[in-house]
Amino acid sequence: MFTGIVEELGEVVSVEELTDASRFRLRGPLVTEGAKHGDSIAVNGVCLTVVTTENGEFTADVMAETLKRSSLGALEKGSRVNLERPMALGGRLGGHLVQGHVDGTGTVAERTPGEHWEIVKIALPDGMARYVVEKGSITVDGVSLTVVEAGADYFTISLIPTTLDLTTLGIKQVGDPVNLEVDVLAKYVERLLGHDGAGAAR
């Protein structure tokens, strides 16, 4: 379990194409400190399992399903990535409960700079808008954020200078894909109320 508070802006060192997966080598001296084989690290909001660690770098295997359903398939050598270790039991929950299980990818649709912050509009994939509510939580590329406006097929977020400086959201351009994870509580409520994926009662 993660919190959506990015610890480190890392970098893709290499991507090795395998038969039905890819092996990523990523640089992240902070998150690899004390990490060992089998540990979890969130990369742009995707929970990955550490295979090896060495000199501030770690490797992780990413299966085809994950590459297909997230934006990790678009990463290449030199790409910057948001990194976060799992929350320690008893630690502070600075963001919200994040599983590291991406629900889909959105697209940066518009950026509007302000004097002290920047408004970013993100287009939603089909079927996800029902989980996004104004002032609710959403994870964008592993960053816990508050929804400013929730539209029929988009939402907006307001990014402060710290978020722009310390995460990939500061360098994402219009048209770039972003990983989205909605608040898991919304999905559980939908299931408990007996609604199907289209929002209709069964």
TrEMBL record:
Enzyme category, top tier: transferase
Residue ranges occupied by any Lumazine-binding domain in the UniProt entry: 1-96, 97-193
Catalysis performed (reactions): 2 6,7-dimethyl-8-(1-D-ribityl)lumazine + H(+) = 5-amino-6-(D-ribitylamino)uracil + riboflavin
Repeat among keywords: yes
GO molecular function: riboflavin synthase activity
Family matches, as PROSITE patterns: LUMAZINE_BIND (PS51177)
Keywords on record: Repeat, Riboflavin biosynthesis, Transferase
Lumazine-binding repeat start and end residues: 1-96, 97-193
Pathway: Cofactor biosynthesis; riboflavin biosynthesis; riboflavin from 2-hydroxy-3-oxobutyl phosphate and 5-amino-6-(D-ribitylamino)uracil: step 2/2
EC identifiers of the protein: 2.5.1.9
Function, as annotated: Catalyzes the dismutation of two molecules of 6,7-dimethyl-8-ribityllumazine, resulting in the formation of riboflavin and 5-amino-6-(D-ribitylamino)uracil.
Record-linked NCBIfam families: PRK09289.1 (NF006767), PRK13020.1 (NF009566), ribE (TIGR00187)
Protein name: Riboflavin synthase
Organism per entry: Streptomyces ochraceiscleroticus
Lineage: Bacteria, Bacillati, Actinomycetota, Actinomycetes, Kitasatosporales
